[in-house]
Amino acid sequence: MTVSGNCHKIRTALILLDQQFEWIEVDTRKGETKTSEFLKINPNGKIPVLQLEDGTNIPESNAILYYLTRDTPLFSKDLLEQTRILEWLFFEQYSHEPFVAVNRWLMKYAADGRENSSVLENNHIKGNKAFSVMEDHLRGKNFFVGERLTIADIALYAYSHVAEDGGFSFDGFPNVRRWLENVRSFPKMISIPR
Ligand SMILES: N[C@@H](CCC(=O)N[C@@H](CS)C(=O)NCC(=O)O)C(=O)O
C-alpha cells in the first residue's frame, strides 16, 4: 500500500538499487490482507510481502530490507556495522513504529481514530521518547551507521518523514530534522505522497 511506511521502505530500497519490480497495491482498509488468498502469502495478514520469481514469499519489512541489500553498500560487510544496523532496525520495530506509525494511522486514516485520546497520548509520549533517542544519536552525524546511507536510515525515515501527520513535531529535535532533510535530498530518495 503506497501510504504505508513499512511498504515505503521496500519501494525505497528497490529504487535506490535500480531493481525492476512490480508493485501490487493491497489495501488494508478494505480487508485485503485478511482474505484466505492473502493469508496463504502471509499467515500474519500484513503487508509488505516480497514475492520472488520462484514463488517464495518474504514478509516483515526489515527482513525484506536485509534480503534486498545484504550485498550492497546499503548494508555492510563489517560485523560491528551489521550489528549496529540490526540494532536500529529492532529499535524501529519496537520503540518507534508502534507509536509513531500508529498515531499517524489513527489520526489520518482510521474512521474513529481520534476518539481514543488516552491511546494517542500514550503513543505520543513513547514516540517522542524514540525521537529523543534518535536526536542524541544523530548529534554530529548525518546517518545512523557508518556515515553513509544504510537500511537503518531507510527503515527509520519511513515513518519519521510523515510523523507530523500523527501529531508529532520536530521543533525540539533539530538533529532529527537535519537528518530527515539529509535523507530526503539523497539521490533517487522517494517520499510517501501526502
Ligand atoms: N512488522 C511488520 C508490520 C507490518 C504492518 O503492520 N503492516 C500493516 C500496514 S503498514 C498492515 O498490513 N496492517 C494490516 C493489519 O494489521 O491488519 C513489518 O515491518 O512489515
Protein traits:
binds glutathione; Glutathione S-transferase Yfyf (Class Pi), Chain A, domain 2; mainly alpha; 194 residues; two-stranded antiparallel sheet; 2 domains; 52% helix; Glutathione_S-Trfase_N; Glutathione_S-Trfase; Thioredoxin-like_sf
What is the share of helical residues? 40-55%
Q: Indicate the CATH architecture of the largest domain.
A: Up-down Bundle
DSSP helical segment count: 7
Major beta sheet, specifics? 2 strands, antiparallel
Strand order of the largest sheet: 1-2
- CATH class assignment of the largest domain: Mainly Alpha
Number of strands: 2
What are the secondary-structure elements, in order, as H or E? HHEEHHHHH
The dominant shape is globular
Arithmetic mean of pLDDT: 97
Query: Looking at CATH, which topology of the largest domain would you report?
Result: Glutathione S-transferase Yfyf (Class Pi), Chain A, domain 2
Strand-residue fraction?
A: under 5%
- Cofactors, ions, other ligands: glutathione
Radius of gyration based on Cα positions: 17 Å
Structural class: mainly alpha
